[in-house]
TrEMBL record:
Residues 314-391 form the Aminomethyltransferase C-terminal domain. One of its GO terms (biological process) is glycine catabolic process. It holds the Pfam family GCV_T. The keyword Acyltransferase does not apply. Belongs to the GcvT family. This is aminomethyltransferase. GO terms for cellular component: glycine cleavage complex. InterPro entries: GcvT, GcvT/YgfZ/DmdA, GcvT/YgfZ_C, GcvT_C, GCVT_N, TrmE/GcvT-like. Its EC number is 2.1.2.10. It comes from Sphingomonas jinjuensis. Residues 31-289 form the GCVT N-terminal domain.
Length: 397
């Protein structure tokens, strides 16, 4: 078996949370582009997506050292406008949406009545004029990117809870590309002058050969980088222009998963779900102080109580002894081998050269340096609770 196929076998993609077997598989705007470059396509979040090109390990390390181009067009790009849109979104998001300035982004969470996480997402305040505004009617106020596997459920949920005065649109004709790595800014600035003025969690409107682009300095790898919303019919030409830069190679889902794991970033449907609260998930930074004090968002009662009294379980990082990775579903067990927690993501970390994982454990064990036992396929593994991220973030602030 080749090294590439071994990597593909060993990586367990944090897969398809919405995936019913009968759900139709959709194609990305860049489907033919990926196949022409040797992308190995797999079903993910209802789409055919590239898991790798040259091999997961090589692609992971290339992104850490240079710049990797990821196709994340399966994500849901949503626009919101209407009177009171800020207040309406704050009813279901615990972040400070009213205080978000133009071109500023915020990580937030869609919550249910019990304080559980329905999805995690990015919210951006759009400028009064510019992107996604056709010159007629009211300009969209908020741009939101939600997970691909949950976007249709999110849309249904938001339609149910938002007032009729709020208009929500799905930008299903827009592609979304992520350019990640320390040399991403060098490569992108050649094609789109001015993007280097952006800093982490800011966004703006740009052009490439007359094509409007909405670009944010953000991503999900822990590296510096950008996410680029572009009309789907020109996405392939733009991807060609990017990969013609010596710093850039196309990168698949396998490396995206290992990069985000090293960065300590949770993935919805695996590390986050409707039974998990932001406090359990160690995402307290997404709870704005004003909102916590007002307790004016859905699920606030439980969430504020957990902040004050502590949750029963917490998400932690694990350094696993030996070379054998532990995967999602492995158990954290006590001395009597009875389950006390569960691994939600795991794999081999190429940058570190060792297996790592995320797990939910009893709060008393969620202290760096604590040794725990993991059970997977009849074998026991020792692991040590570790601070996250495993690899330091390199955002440009």
């Amino acid at each position: 078996m080749s090294e590439t196929m071994t990597e593909a076998r060993d990586v367990e993609l944090s897969g398809d949370p919405d995936g019913g077997e009968d759900a139709p598989i959709q194609l990305l705007p860049l489907d033919a582009w990926h196949r022409a470059r040797g992308g190995r396509m797999v079903p993910f979040a209802g789409y055919e997506m590239p898991v790798q090109y040259d091999g997961i390990m090589a692609e992971h390390l290339w992104t850490r050292e240079h710049a990797g181009l990821f196709d994340v067009s399966h994500m849901g790009q949503l626009l919101f406008t209407g009177a009171g849109v800020d207040q309406s979104l704050e009813a279901v998001l615990p972040g400070d949406i009213k205080g978000l300035g133009e071109g500023r982004m915020r990580y937030s969470l869609l919550l249910n009545d019990d304080g559980g996480i329905v999805d995690d997402l990015m919210v951006t305040r759009l400028p009064a004029t510019g992107p996604f505004h056709d010159g007629e009617g009211e300009a969209p106020a908020i741009y939101m990117v939600v997970n691909g596997a949950t976007k249709y459920d999110d849309i249904g949920y938001l339609l149910d809870v938002l007032p009729d005065a709020i208009t929500m649109s799905l930008l299903d004709e827009q592609a979304l590309l992520a350019l990640q790595g320390p040399e991403a800014v060098t490569a992108l600035a050649r094609l789109v002058p001015g993007v280097d003025r952006l800093v982490f969690m800011t966004a703006g409107a740009f052009e490439w050969n007359g094509t409007p682009l909405w670009i944010s300095r953000s991503g999900y790898t822990g590296e510096d980088g950008f996410e680029i919303s572009i009309p789907g019919d020109v996405a392939a030409a733009f991807a060609d222009a990017l990969t013609e830069q010596p710093e850039v190679k196309p990168i698949g889902l396998g490396a995206r998963d290992s990069l985000r794991l090293e960065a300590g970033l949770p993935l919805y449907g695996h590390d986050l779900d409707p039974d998990t609260t932001p406090v359990m998930a160690d995402l307290g930074f997404a709870l704005a102080k004003r909102r916590r004090e007002a307790k004016d968002f859905v699920g606030a009662e439980r969430i504020v109580s957990e902040r004050e009294n502590g949750p029963a379980t917490k998400r932690v990082g694990l350094m696993v002894e030996g070379r054998q990775p532990v995967r999602e579903g492995a158990l954290v067990v006590g001395d009597d081998r009875v389950e006390i927690g569960r691994v939600t993501s795991g794999g081999f970390a190429p940058t570190i050269g060792a297996p790592i994982a995320m797990a939910y454990v009893p709060a008393a064990l969620a202290v760096p340096g604590t040794v725990v036992t993991l059970a997977q396929r009849g074998k026991l593994h020792r692991a040590t609770v570790a601070a996250m991220p495993f690899v330091p973030h390199r955002y440009v602030r």
